[in-house]
Amino acid sequence: MKRRNDDLWHLVAAEYALGLLRGPARRRFERMREQDAYFCAFADEWERRIGSVAAGFREVDPSPDLWRRIARETVEPEERRRPAPLWGRGDFWRGVAAAGLAAAAALLIYVAVPGDRPAPSGPEQVAVLRNDAAEETFVVTLDADRREVRVRVVGDAAVPPGRVLELWALGPEGAPRSLGLLPPGMVATLAVAPYEAQRFPQVSAVAVSLEPTGGSPGAGPSGPVLYRGGVLPLR
Amino acid sequence: MVQEHYSMEEIVAACAARDQAAFRDLYDRTAGRLMAVAMAILHRRDWAEEALQDAYVNVWRHAASYDPARGTAMTWLMAIVRYRALSLRERLAREGRWQADDDAAAVPDPAPSPFEAAVRANAAEALRLCLEDLDDNQRTAVQLAFVRGYTHMELAEVLGHPLGTVKSWVRRGLMRLRECLANEAA
Questions:
Q1: pTM
Q2: Interface test with B, best of A5, A52, A63, A196 (most B CBs within 10 A)
């Protein structure tokens, strides 16, 4: 994609990545970057360049207690806090299984016969996610073999500016696990870690929550859960 | 425990999935390098560690926002640490605790700079060649911005030239650098 003023925007992106843009100019470019792949690509390119320089620095060991300080703010509180928050409430996943399974069955053909893809080599699971008005909005396929989640938008999934949609899997652990942020567009494929893919067979439901840019700041959804659906094996 | 053969990208994805062992592994693998990035900007260990702590907490919270299509996990981590270090320095400056010259490292070094050492070690040959293409003022200004993360104001102070002059060195330097890198890649 080529636009006018490429040179100018390259320069702004470079100054942004270097930290030379300050105050409102910085925030303005940050927003442009989040909302427009054109600016994003420029900033990414300069971050890679800056990173390649920093990669050659001689390593400096931080003091041994730095990890403790980080752990106190990250992994430890999560251990202590569990269980209870939003997703622990009885009504949170209410109706997911029944409504989701029916919808999934109705849409099976739609998902299973895309025509242009070879047949799946292993078990896949599918979930149809509905909004509060029970309108089908997303079809989500969990593919453990390919370690990916495929998402197709089948209804109206408008996102307010400055917000993102985050996809969650609910398994036997009780707490939802993030599968990633949904990029804009009708179809998306999210790669997942091997650890996550191994857990797919235990996933019973999938949900999408509305989150601030960058995703939920916590371990579970921080915003409202807008779409949800139960998981059904595809074969 | 996370196994050695997982890539950094897979480890970040595991962090997004709230895998605590993966997070510890990520820290062990990257803290030394990221500490160097923070030290280049903040010069003092205690400040660098503060920036690092802030960065890792954010990495844990926002691991899901990492997109492998946009660059390596290491580039992503370095950008986070860099932005955190820069904003900490901005805060220190606001509180009157930071001075661009509170460390000998702040003055341009006639010996091979960490930048030059870095690009050589890294075999980022194109970048080095393209830097040589810049005139002396542009090169010094761009190097200090890359390595030290200096603001325009700090560059003006350190280089002893007016703000407007230094700004245009940086701009012209960056534009020529990009043109040159684009030609090298072609």
A1: 0.57
A2: A52
